[in-house]
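ok here's Broad-specificity ulvan lyase C-terminal domain-containing protein, seq below lol
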Amino acid sequence: FARGNWRGTVTAYDAIYKDGYYRQATGGALSLLFHTKVGLVLAASMAKYKLVEPLNQQPNPGEDFPFTPRIETVHNDEWSSNIFDRAATISSEDTNGQILINAQCQLKNEYNQAVEATASDFDLTYECSESSLRIIAKTDQEIISRTSFVLPIISPSRETVTQLNTNELTVQKPEGLVKITSNVPLTIRETSKERIFNMVPGAEAIPIMAYFDKNKVVKLTIEIF
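and the structure came out like this:
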């Protein structure tokens, strides 16, 4: 999709990439977000980093933290996310200057099994206008295990991050300011360094977490100034 200075991709695959290694972005994930003023904002990684093409890859340094924006939960020590969902469906429309993309997805483990003891069915909506990109994630099911929307903003460690309040933060880039606003508190996941690095896409990111509360909806807005 493209609107104003925004360029993006929402992805859903139903195929396994290679020999059972199901790693590429899927599940209705926002796999790419670019802005012509500030550059790359979001970029997907493998769900789990594996040397699928060992002659073209290096081991991933540090912890394996995927960069694909996603809904995720951990139940009974098992990680489930929409980025493992091979059955997600996507629809879109473009009206009144706004692109609306909707994805119906499930939280699944790496074996494509939906989590059963907590909410698994989610609705993802992306609203793109010239002024902003909005992400809405919601469910009608009961959330038993702590569930979050993970937003890894691409950002080298030299860029300044400012938490304006519990629900707003900014990232100062050379050509502009990225502002993220949420209806729930935004937290930055604790890491050993200021950023997390992933070999695919070969970048650093700020691991921003937005946890679902009793209202069972997370609303995130990304703006560029």
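fwiw The chain has a mean pLDDT of 95. kinda neat tbh
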